[in-house]
């Protein structure tokens, strides 16, 4: 028996612990809370989207964020190669509250540091890493497959304005981000450039900001805004320059003819042709043209593409080509007439600019050729040596058969008139020869004779002065002269080599010499090509009529 | 002799003051501490706490334990990804420590504590000596279980430089702490004396 005092012994209440302990509530509650959290997370999980990019540069699964206006709206979960191995598929989870923003036309692009004419952007991604920018669209249907943009769109989606398409087919093009001006204001940008290989044209997606988009009608004309534009006309010399922006980066300008109605508002699909300069938009555009050959016996010098074809001083067409030598012939062939291809626009003749006008013009010109329509090559500008094709109508002669060459009608050449022109040039040269040059030279000789006589008389004057000085009575006078000479000496000293006046004079002379040296190449150039003072060496072609753009 | 043994088994020590007294009492005759009859141990505490710990183990490993903001970019790291990152950076020692302390030991603890609890329910699963060794080991390891939570806590307190670099604890830190507390309580609810009580284990060991 235990020898422990057991006075206060209370019998233990031995109860069997079969019932559940309340502590089981702890794991039960934990599990319940956990399950609820998992369920809520699952329910609240946002939609998964797949975005196709060309490259996954800078993207990282699990880390790269998707942001809208710098607010996180999702996160990249996975990056895999697309089936075609040419692009990557980025799987991203968008937060549930932004589910409705995933419209069909939503746009995704990778924000990375960019330096361009449009400015510098995305510098913060240098530090934080790149992220995907998400721009919700305006469509009503949602989607979960998107194609990422290569570059950030220049215009925030949904900004008020007008998207339109510009077209160029000339020797100039515009870059992404170049500006669109209206009266010097920047009102839009070129957003994208596409090249049409088949058509040889460049298409631009442009955006005009509100409220300027209301200026755009179907009659609006666009032209290339060059920095500086110089022009020499009969009214004088004109120099235009745009704002500093256009000087530096160029761009597109547009104008809308007054009176064109806003009702003609274009749609996005409307294409606008961009003219090479401001004046080109004013030049009338002709759709139809008739082609003729003019056979030139003499020189075609001074004629070129776009040279004028005139009738009674009015331009009715232009020269298309002058350098065609018929197959099988050559320039050494004495009987070869150089064919000059010209085109005549019925529109310029005052006929309707359509097929009806073409028919009428063809008939009339054929009739005229029979009655005596001839083409002559005449000087358009004596100073610059430009020539033009002049159509003249000399009725009353023998009826002429209409000849064709290379399937085109030939307008006969008035050989006599060319001869007349040549002889008039010869007359001019003869007159130049007859100028009294020898008489002038004789006059110069006479002048030198006179000069030597003057010198002789001056010598006599000096001798008489000497005799005057040698007389004794003039000692006082001599002393005075001495003094005068001394002061002259002082004066001369001040002009000596070190004096300021002399140095200045020398500098001036040096400057003149330098100027002459610089002037010499210009003088040489002028001698070789006199018109270079006014026209650039490679003069641009004259404005040419072309088809009206659709 | 046999009677003495019988008597000895009728005696018990007070868990608070150590006073030896008969098992029949419900309270210690000296200090009044409640005495537990140890023959049929109540393992419900242990099991429920262990289950709680196991539930907490899931979010502790799946949720991010640390949110690192560095130069504007934000990173979330779970325990496992932290180990991977450290390993990739060549910090093998630290990666190893965290792997062992945060992943391996909690798992081992679940196994060990359940084994101990089972051995109290069923005789012969573990010898009393081995069971006691394991129990001591569990007690010893328990105090080092919070390494991960401590690391996160220290970093979060120390590194707060705004956008330049700042560290915030993630939800997993809380779950991990809860798991450690639950498993420690579970281990603590085991009475090591029970290992020696069943079926004259004491004598068997002595023999």
Task: Give the overall form of chain A.
Answer: flat
Largest interface: A-B, 29 and 31 residues
Distance N to C terminus of chain A: 121 Å
Largest sheet report of chain B: 3 strands, antiparallel
CATH domain topology of the largest domain in chain B:
Butyryl-CoA Dehydrogenase, subunit A, domain 3
Structurally, the number of domains of chain B stands at: 2
Helix segment tally of chain B? 9
The level of helicity of chain B is 55-70%
Could you outline the blueprint of secondary structure elements for this entry?
The complex is a heterodimer of chains A (550) and B (207).
Chain A: H1 25-43, E1 48-53, E2 65-68, E3 71-81, E4 88-94, E5 107-111, E6 114-116, E7 119-121, H2 125-128, E8 131-135, E9 145-147, E10 161-168, E11 179-182, E12 185-196, E13 201-209, E14 221-224, E15 228-233, E16 236-241, H3 244-249, E17 252-255, E18 271-275, E19 290-296, E20 308-311, E21 314-321, E22 338-344, H4 355-371, E23 373-381, E24 386-393, E25 404-405, E26 408-411, H5 415-433, H6 437-470, H7 475-494, H8 500-528
Parallel strand pairs in A: 1-9, 2-8, 10-18, 11-17, 14-18, 19-26, 20-24
Antiparallel strand pairs in A: 1-4, 2-3, 3-4, 5-8, 6-7, 10-13, 11-12, 12-13, 14-17, 15-16, 19-22, 20-21, 21-22, 23-24, 25-26
Chain B: H1 2-10, E1 11-13, E2 20-22, H2 44-62, E3 66-70, E4 73-77, H3 79-88, H4 92-121, H5 128-142, H6 147-158, E5 165-169, H7 171-189, H8 193-197, H9 201-206
Antiparallel strand pairs in B: 1-2, 3-4, 3-5
């Amino acid at each position: 028996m235990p020898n422990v005092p057991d006075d206060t012994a209370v019998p233990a209440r031995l109860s069997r612990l079969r019932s559940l302990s309340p502590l089981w509530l702890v794991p039960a509650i934990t599990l319940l809370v956990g399950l609820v959290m998992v369920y809520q997370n699952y329910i609240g999980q946002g939609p998964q989207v797949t975005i196709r990019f060309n490259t996954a540069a800078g993207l990282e699964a699990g880390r790269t964020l998707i942001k809208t206006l710098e607010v996180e709206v999702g996160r990249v979960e996975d990056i895999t190669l697309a089936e075609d191995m040419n692009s990557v598929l980025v799987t991203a989870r968008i937060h549930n509250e932004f589910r409705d923003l995933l419209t069909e036309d939503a746009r995704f692009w990778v924000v990375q540091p960019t330096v361009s004419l449009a400015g510098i952007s995305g510098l913060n991604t240098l530090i934080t890493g790149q992220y995907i920018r998400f721009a919700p669209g305006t469509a009503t249907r949602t989607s979960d497959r998107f194609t990422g943009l290569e570059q950030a769109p220049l215009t925030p989606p949904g900004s008020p304005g007008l998207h339109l398409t510009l077209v160029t087919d000339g020797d100039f093009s515009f870059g992404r981000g170049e500006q669109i001006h209206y009266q010097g204001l920047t009102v839009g940008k070129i957003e994208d450039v596409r090249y049409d290989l088949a058509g040889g044209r460049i298409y631009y997606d442009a955006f005009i900001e509100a409220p300027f988009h209301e200026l755009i009608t179907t009659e609006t004309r666009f032209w290339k805004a060059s920095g500086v534009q110089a022009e020499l006309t009969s009214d004088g010399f004109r120099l235009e320059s745009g704002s500093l922006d256009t000087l530096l980066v160029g761009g597109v300008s547009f104008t809308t003819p007054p009176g064109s109605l806003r009702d003609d508002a274009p749609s996005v699909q409307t294409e606008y042709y961009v003219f090479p300069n401001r004046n080109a938009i004013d030049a009338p555009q002709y759709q139809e043209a008739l082609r003729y050959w003019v056979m030139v016996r003499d020189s075609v010098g001074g004629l070129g593409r776009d040279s004028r074809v005139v009738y009674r001083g009015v331009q009715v067409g232009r020269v298309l080509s002058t350098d065609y030598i018929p197959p099988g012939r050559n320039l050494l062939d004495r009987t070869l007439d150089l064919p000059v291809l010209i085109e005549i626009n019925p529109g310029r003749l005052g006929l309707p600019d359509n097929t009806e006008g073409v028919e009428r013009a063809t008939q009339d010109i054929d009739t005229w050729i029979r009655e005596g329509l001839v083409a002559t090559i005449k000087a358009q500008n004596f100073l610059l040596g430009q020539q033009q094709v002049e159509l003249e109508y000399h009725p009353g002669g023998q009826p002429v058969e209409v000849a064709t060459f290379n399937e085109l009608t030939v307008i006969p050449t008035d050989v006599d008139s060319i001869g007349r022109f040549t002889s008039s040039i010869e007359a001019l040269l003869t007159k130049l020869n007859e100028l009294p040059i020898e008489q002038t030279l004789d006059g110069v000789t006479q002048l030198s004779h006179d000069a030597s006589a003057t010198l002789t008389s001056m010598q006599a004057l000096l001798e008489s002065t000497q005799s005057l000085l040698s007389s004794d009575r003039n000692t006082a006078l001599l002393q005075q002269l001495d003094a005068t000479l001394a002061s002259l000496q002082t004066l001369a000293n001040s002009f000596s080599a070190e004096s300021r006046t002399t140095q200045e004079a020398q500098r001036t002379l040096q400057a003149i010499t330098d100027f002459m040296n610089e002037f010499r190449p210009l003088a040489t150039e002028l001698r070789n090509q006199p018109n270079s003072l006014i026209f650039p060496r490679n003069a641009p072609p004259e404005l040419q009529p072309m088809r009206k753009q659709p | 002799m046999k009677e003495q043994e019988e008597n000895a088994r009728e005696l018990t020590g007070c868990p608070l003051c150590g006073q030896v007294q008969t098992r029949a009492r419900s309270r210690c005759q000296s200090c009044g501490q409640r005495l537990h009859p140890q023959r049929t141990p109540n393992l419900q505490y242990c099991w429920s706490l262990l289950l709680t710990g196991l539930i907490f183990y899931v979010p502790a490993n799946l949720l991010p334990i640390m949110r690192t903001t560095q130069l504007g970019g934000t990173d979330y790291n779970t325990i496992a990804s932290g180990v991977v990152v450290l390993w990739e950076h060549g910090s093998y020692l630290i990666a190893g420590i965290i792997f062992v302390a945060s992943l391996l030991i909690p798992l081992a603890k679940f196994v060990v504590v359940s084994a101990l609890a089972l051995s109290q329910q069923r005789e012969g699963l573990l010898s009393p000596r081995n069971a006691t060794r394991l129990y001591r080991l569990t007690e010893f390891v328990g105090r080092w279980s919070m390494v991960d939570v401590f690391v996160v806590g220290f970093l979060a307190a120390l590194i707060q430089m705004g956008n330049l670099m700042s560290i915030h604890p993630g939800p997993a830190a809380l779950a991990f702490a809860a798991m450690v507390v639950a498993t420690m309580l579970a281990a603590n609810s085991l009475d090591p004396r029970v290992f020696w009580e069943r079926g004259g284990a004491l004598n068997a060991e002595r023999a």
